[in-house]
Amino acid sequence: MRSNHFWRRYDRLLGPDPASDVNDELRFHLEARIEDLIAQGWEPEAARQEAKRQFGDFRTVQQIGQRMGEKMERRKRFTERLSVLLQDLRYTFRTLARDRGFSIVSILILTLAIGANVAVFSVVNTLLLRPLPFPNAQQLIRIHDLDPKAAESSRPFSTDALQELQQRTRTFQQVTGYFGFSGPGNVKLIGKDQPRPLTGISVAGNFFPTLGVKPLLGRNFSAEEIVRNSRPVAILSYPFWKRQFAADPLIIGKVINLDGNPTTIVGVLPDTFDFGSVFSPGSKVDLFTPAIFADMEDWGNTMNLVGRLKPGVTLAQAQAEAASLFPQLHYNFKRPDMGVGYSADLSTLKDYVSGKLRRSLIVLWCAVGMILLIACVNLSSLLLARSAARSREFAIRTALGAGRARIIRQLLMESLLLSLAGAVLGLGLAYGILGWLSHQNSIALPLLSSLHIDSTALAWTLLVAIAASLLFSLMPGIRLATGSLQEALKEGGQATGEGKSHQRMRSVLVVCEVALACVLLVGAGLLLRSFLHVLDVDLGFQPSHSAAISVSYDDGGDPVKRGVILQQILQRVEQIPGVETAGISDNLPLTINRSWGIDAKGHAYRKHGVPDTFVYLVTPGYLRAMGMHLVQGRDIAWEDTDKKQAVVIVNETVARYLWPGEDPIGKIAIINGSSHGYAQVIGVVADVHETSAETAPGWQMYLSETAPQFGPVGAHLVIRTKLPPASLASSVMGVLREINPAQPAYQLVPIQTLVDRASSPRRFFVLLVAAFAGLGLLLAALGIYGVISYSVTRRTQEIGIRMALGATTGIVQRGVVLDTLRLTLAGIALGAAASLASARLITSLLFATSPWDATTYAGMIVALIAVALVSGYLPARRASRINPLIALRSQ
Amino acid sequence: MDSAKLEFLRGTLDVLILKALVWGPLHGYGITSLIRRQSDDALLVEEGTLYPALWRLESKGLLEAEWGLSENNRKAKFYRLTAAGRRQLRHEVKTWDAYATAVAKVLDATQPPLPEEIG
After folding, report:
1. A:B CB pairs within 8 Å
2. Which site in A78, A95, A240, A615 is 20 to 30 Å from A496, CA atoms measured?
3. What ipTM does this complex have?
4. To probe the interface with A, which of B23, B29, B64 has the most A CB atoms within 10 Å?
5. What is the dihedral of CA A305, A306, A308, A309, to 10 degrees?
6. Which pLDDT tens digit goes with each residue over B30-77?
7. Would you say A509 and A786 are in contact if contact means Cβ atoms under 8 Å apart?
């Protein structure tokens, strides 16, 4: 073979061409053969024929050749590209490693921003986007009865109404329910040691089948187990089974002692079913027992209903049916005088669980989105500064033959690499945050326990990371693409002229950043003000200095004995040093709200049944122990045990409504539609916020716990003390154990805990939004500092000259600080305008706070200016220390 | 024996091509003539199988191709052994020898094998 001729160099000038390569190769073969044949003495034409004959199927070989050639070409191109990519990647790593400070700061900023985004996305995904953890969850409907008196509150149903509904509905496959008045520690597990308080919920026999929950072990309740006097059975929740029975696989059929009743365990629920997280946020349920309807028909409206729609039936169709059917439902078949009629209010279970949180979550999502934007703006600014410093490097590389596209690709790769590093660390951060959140039992948010990072969240992370890297490399990229090579080389890093437009670009970025931080601050400020207002609400009782503990006693169903025992408990407890006063109630505010009816005797019969009134069975001293305010009349006394006519204390709302303009004291009230008889009003107390601080107080009445006509449901001892409750816990427990050795080890809970729990969702959101606002402020401060500091460096000479010409340090400092202020004020103006415009989004989340709250805006402005001054002052001080001689010599 | 009808055993062509290139780069036509002459006209390589085989060896990285000029100054594609090709050749020759020896032993046998010991 001879060496290449010059023409070979241009042969494939327009890129490789496998097809003509094959043709050339094969043609050469044929021609060589023909020449040989001619040399052997063949006639040229015959030689051509013979060569073709010898070759055989020319066309097929040609096609094979072209196919293989193309494949090889593709592979070659791919490996070439890969090697270029690897080269770029190596170079990028080297560059980032060299500029360690920049890389660390960038990755840190991205970690915070992406981590916050992923964490919030996971919360949003769990609560809003993902379906509830039940099969065909969209068919599940929460059924309420609308209280005609208060539009917001909804009521449960009686068991008779539930059964009637089950028979008559045509839109639901199944309707089921659970007992709505079970509280924590309502069941005692009696074993070898002290009785243990457990939380049990009675559910209708078809509860789990309706939800589509299949027991992990064992079975659901059978038909024989939901009738009166049946053998007591229970189904365990997964965590309780694990905790109490060490996940014993042979648990089914074992008998445990609940409240003295031997109860057979028939099933264990799967880990995926968490009753509390769906139906009662923030609570843990240990076991489920069947609701025996035959026993419950006289208990009133106790069942919270859930239905599963038939396939293809819409919520609107079900609502239409309910509108005509529900008013016909019987409250109690045996007592038609109690009236018929419910009014239906259907919502999807999903809506019931998370509908109220939708707005909060969207605001939260916007807040983290803004954090991400601020982070991007910050990085953009950092990259701009860096690309200015690197303009020489780029110019040299361009001069050495690197294409502009390659350099821009290089920049993109740097951004992407930073972003991905941030994403990986951010995922770790989010994982930590979510792990912590999912174990926060004190936050009454639904579905918290099922928080985790799923594949959707991972995809979101990747998306956010890529979007962020594109976003923050956009500006530097454009700048590089439009910049001039010669300029950069000429400037030679002195950065004097490269200036103005560049500096303006970064100033715009800072203004944007300040504006975003401003919007965040306003949002956080408004939510914080609302939260403070919520804390300020007069609850009607004084939660500080009070603590409550569940009390168990055995009166054998004898009200007289009950009175003696309770009186004894209170006397002994009040003797404990530090306890100022004590009282007992069957229910505490902000926990479970049981409602009965109350009416003034002599009033016309109300068609819609009796108005709902929250009822508390209390002992003397309870009002004082809770710090409630008796407006009129007297407290209940131990002697108020008249069988025929009980005594009642009503709240101001009831008094105002039932006896308007009259003195309620001494009036006679009908309790619960006369099923519990009459009661004389002996006092009026100030309204108590029984549901939450944010909702208006409802109707309330207080009856004597020792009165024979009202069977108590439970007993909570409330003590009032100036000491920390924990220090009294053991002596209170000691007294209770002395009186009743079977007293379970309940905890003495500060009443403040109940209040905190009720406001925990709001606190949760305020905390998060405030944290995001703080983060935004920090990032904005970094941005301001970066830009101002850079401009001072750039103007070293100018400042030096001015100082040489007699400018004082004060004047120089003032100049720099004024620059900072100008940027900040522009950002504030922009941000304030945006906040005012978007005020409507947040209005529904505020409590007693205007979305245009002047204090908040003023606070925001002060905070931003203060931060700006600090971040501008540091460069200003540096500027004023410039030594004119050195500055000028550095020319 | 009719030389044109001597069929190639599977895989034999590959090793012959590799061997042909041991003496230096050749174009496809050169390879056919080298094999023909070296086998004293006993082996005739068909073009329809030669070129696909060459391209396959090239895509496996056993051969390298380069355009050059032939003896009579024509543009031709020359193939050259790569290091991997050389290794492959050594390996194939060894396998071929072992195979040929084994076949020869059987074919050249003059008496049946001794009975195997059972144990």
Report:
1. 74
2. A95
3. 0.84
4. B29
5. 70
6. 998 898 888 888 888 887 788 888 998 988 889 998 888 888 788 888
7. no
